[in-house]
Write a structure and sequence with these properties.
Elements: H1 3-23, H2 26-35, H3 38-55, H4 57-60, H5 98-134, H6 136-151, H7 154-165, H8 169-179, H9 182-195, H10 199-206, H11 211-219, H12 224-247, H13 259-266, H14 275-307
């Protein structure tokens, strides 16, 4: 082996080692960026708190949210004159503990938010990838479907569908999910059109990969950053949609605990007992705020990484 070969191998080894040393701190760097993003951290803390509250509701809530105590109906919160320490946030019109119903309401809102966003993600990403990858007649058909979907009044259509099928948690999740997929489609279609002509896609075709394999194993992983940002934002949209449907009486039905339904039940006495509307409204605000902060934070981090 000549001296030139030895020097070449040494240089290659040093370059490889340098790449490994540069790649090693990449993972901690991501977490460091997350920790130094105040909006993302605040959103994650609020969202994690609500998830823990919902997951451990039977152990955290002081009462059964369905137990009625009519002699103690419409008790004010503990900080209002006439409040009772046994019911920190008071009771509703049937004497049910308001704090317990708020805690159990987190389960319904999170389930609907993540469930509807997942359904919309599957529909929108599938249509967007097909339109962007195949183009031609498929792209025109998908664009026509998108135009029809955007032309329809979403809330009115959701009310009609839920009313015709019958209100329940599962129906509300499916209806909201089937009506909220347009953002996924637009973003994934545009991204797929850029990716489909890149060299590694051409190489996958050359080695005999099928179209389905290319879409699933080559294109879809490169759309993950865009999808996760849209998903986090769509969770908040789905929560607001459920609250609107429940407030209008065609969403979650009593006695199931839902924040939108609690606002609808408390609107009758909103001037005399405003906490019946303010408290569930604050929880909806916190959940939507957390989802939007997480989405904005992820978008900022991913855009910063793409510039490097």
């Amino acid at each position: 082996m000549t001296e030139m070969d030895l020097s070449f191998k040494a240089a290659a080894a040093s370059e490889t080692g340098g790449e490994l040393l540069d790649a090693a701190p990449a993972q901690p760097k991501i977490w460091r960026n997350i920790l130094h993003h105040p909006g993302l951290m605040l959103g994650l803390v609020i969202l994690a708190s609500l998830v823990i509250l919902a997951a451990f509701a039977p152990w955290i809530s002081p009462y059964n949210p369905y137990d009625q105590q009519l002699p103690q109906r419409l008790l004010p919160p503990v900080w209002v004159h006439g409040g009772n320490a046994a019911h920190l946030l008071g009771t509703d019109h049937l004497g049910r503990d308001y704090l317990s119903r708020l805690i159990y309401g987190a389960r319904v809102s999170l389930l609907i938010g993540f469930g509807a966003a997942s359904i919309g993600c599957v529909i929108g990403v599938t249509l967007g990838m097909c339109a962007g990858f195949f183009g031609g007649i498929i792209d025109r058909i998908v664009s026509f479907i998108l135009t029809c979907q955007l032309a329809l009044p979403g809330l009115l259509l959701a009310m009609a569908l839920v009313f015709l099928i019958g209100p329940s948690v599962g129906v509300v999740i499916c209806v909201i999910g089937f009506l909220h997929w347009s953002y996924y489609l637009v973003v994934t279609r545009a991204a797929t059109q850029k990716i489909r002509d890149l060299e590694y896609i051409t190489a996958a075709r050359a080695i005999g990969s099928s179209r389905l394999q290319i879409m699933v194993t080559e294109i879809l992983p490169n759309l993950f950053s865009e999808i996760i940002v849209i998903f986090s934002l769509e969770v908040g949209v789905a929560v607001l949609a459920e609250a609107a449907l429940s407030f209008l009486g065609v969403g979650i039905q009593p006695p199931t605990s839902s924040w939108g339904l609690m606002i609808a039940e408390g609107k009758v006495s909103v001037f005399l007992r405003p906490w019946l509307v303010i408290l569930p409204g604050m929880f909806i605000f916190l959940l939507v705020l957390a989802a939007n902060l997480v989405g904005d934070g992820l978008r900022d981090l991913m855009s910063n990484e793409s510039r490097r």
